[in-house]
Amino acid sequence: MTSKYIDINGRWGVVLCYNLYRKDVRDMRAYMESFGMEDENIDEALRVLLYHENTGMCVSSFALRMSLVFIGGSSDEGQFWDTVSHELYHVMTAICDYYDVSSGSEDAAWTMGYLVRKTVQQIAPP
Looking at the chain, which runs of residues are DSSP E strands? Predict the structure, then answer.
């Protein structure tokens, strides 16, 4: 598993995990537990992420002011980026909810653009 951290001006953090393998289950579980997920939800998430293509997951914690994103295996590079952008949208909406900002606002659009730029700079698709 490859993990990257994206900081949004010290106001929110994103842990982005991709290149997931079955050998990474312990680390994946630890991340999910640290974000408050319960065992049954973790088990289901692991099944989906590790055994189905073109899947992803985002969980956010207002207490941590962070989001955790997993990108499962992809059928091709385009699908990888589709999944990344889908999950980053969930990150953006969590940030907007936390800071009481409209998801249709200029601030939300800036946040989405920032997330995409930082992600593209840090990761290369598998």
Answer: 2-8, 12-18, 56-61, 66-71
Res 124: pLDDT: 66
Q: Whole domain around residue 84: which residue ranges?
A: 2-122
How many Å is the Cα radius of gyration of the chain?
14
**What are the CA-CA distances from residue 77 to residues 50, 82, 109 (Å)?**
17, 9, 24
Tell me which residue of 71, 75, 72, 65 sits closest to 35, measured CA to CA.
Answer: 65
Q: What are phi and psi of 50, to 5 degrees?
A: -90, -20
User: For residues 2 and 42, what is the distance between their CA atoms, to the nearest angstrom?
Assistant: 19
Backbone phi and psi for residue 123, each to the nearest 5 degrees, phi listed first: -125, 155
* Domain total in the chain: 1
This prediction's pTM: 0.93
